[in-house]
Amino acid sequence: MFEVSRGLIDLDMSFSSTVENIDRVDEEAMKFLARMGIEAEVFCIRLAVREGLLNAVNHGCCGDPNKIIKCGMRLKDNAVFVEINDGGCGFDWAAYMGKELKTFTSDSGRGLAIMRKYCTDIEYNTKGSRLFLRKEIGDRKVCANRVRKQGDIVVIKPGQDIVASMAEEFRHEIEPLMKECPSVVVIDLAGVEMVDSAGIGVLLSARTCANDSGSKLIVINASEDVCGVFKAIGLDQLFNLLSA
Fold first, then answer.
1. For 124, phi and psi rounded to 5 degrees?
2. CB-based contact 33:140 (threshold 8 Å)
3. Is the pLDDT higher at 239 or at 133?
4. What is the mean pLDDT of the chain?
5. How are beta strands 121-124 and 130-136 bridged, if at all?
6. CATH architecture for residues 2-136
7. 130-136 and 184-188 strand pairing
8. pTM: predicted TM-score of the whole model, two decimal places
9. Of 222, 226, 215, which Cα lies nearest the Cα of 242?
10. Helix, strand or coil for residue 98?
11. Which of 37, 50, 73, 77 has its CA 20 to 30 A from that of 26?
12. Could you tell me which of 35, 30, 34 has the C-alpha nearest to residue 173?
């Protein structure tokens, strides 16, 4: 079992306690970090999460694939927060917390030492069944070339058709930057020949974010066909739409 919930600035997973699922979590984590525009500290975050999950599988769940592990990742205040809950009986984490990595020559305690080394903060609940990690990151990279910042202006230029196959990924790219309350958001539709209902949903979401943050949103370089779609369903009344 492996279930994933991808939010605006968070990622939640529930999965069977197997080492194979650790690889799946790692894949989801890489996608999440890329989507959030995080370029630095990716190795540190991935390694710490892997070590936390290995402890959860091997010790918290005692290798029982019928047990469920929950892992969540969130971006807040220039830091990535990770929570891992194995629901097990816990362990005496305090006995290992003060030891240095170089003292470990057995299999016991290395994972905890690595997490301490690569994370800004690490905490367990009293029982030792729930792990909390925090890793500070530097300034985020603006995602790909589709979104860029020019001072207090965000320019969104998809450069391709805004359709269902790319809509969700595109939504996750633009919404975090919209939350930063730019003064102006420009959606440049140059090169966009098709916008389907899913793509319109992304643009409406961007408009909602702009309204919530007090930003002015402008759509430029819309083709005649795209303008026709907006007018056909009344969206020309909601968007400041400038044709190509």
1. -120, 155
2. no
3. 133
4. 84
5. antiparallel
6. 2-Layer Sandwich (3.30)
7. unpaired
8. 0.59
9. 222
10. coil
11. 77
12. 35
How crowded is the C-beta side of 176, counted as CA atoms within 13 Å?
26
Residue 218, phi then psi, degrees to nearest 5: -130, 135
d(CA 203, CA 187): 9
User: Any idea of the CA torsion for 94, 132, 120, 52, to the nearest 10 degrees?
Assistant: 80
32-83 residue pLDDT tens? 887 777 877 899 999 999 999 998 998 889 889 999 999 999 988 788 999 9
- For residue 101, give the nearest of 89, 92, 88, 110 by alpha carbon: 110
CA separation for the pair 155, 147 (Å, rounded): 6
Are the C-beta atoms of residues 11 and 28 closer than 8 Å to each other? Answer: yes
Name the DSSP class of 67. S
Write the DSSP symbol of residue 128. Answer: S
Q: Is 53 left (phi over 0), alpha (psi -120 to 50) or beta?
A: alpha
| Residue 244: its H or E element | none
Domain limits of the chain? 2-136, 147-243
Q: What's the chain's length in residues?
A: 244
Joined together, the tokens standing for residue 47 give 């390694």
E strands along the chain, which residues? 2-6, 10-16, 68-76, 79-85, 121-124, 130-136, 147-150, 153-156, 184-188, 216-222, 240-243
- Write the CATH number of the domain with boundaries 147-243: 3.30.750.24
Q: Which amino acid is at 117?
A: K
**Would you give the end-to-end CA distance of the chain in angstroms?**
49
Q: What angle do CA 236, 218, 76 make, to 5 degrees?
A: 120
pLDDT the model gives residue 104: 46
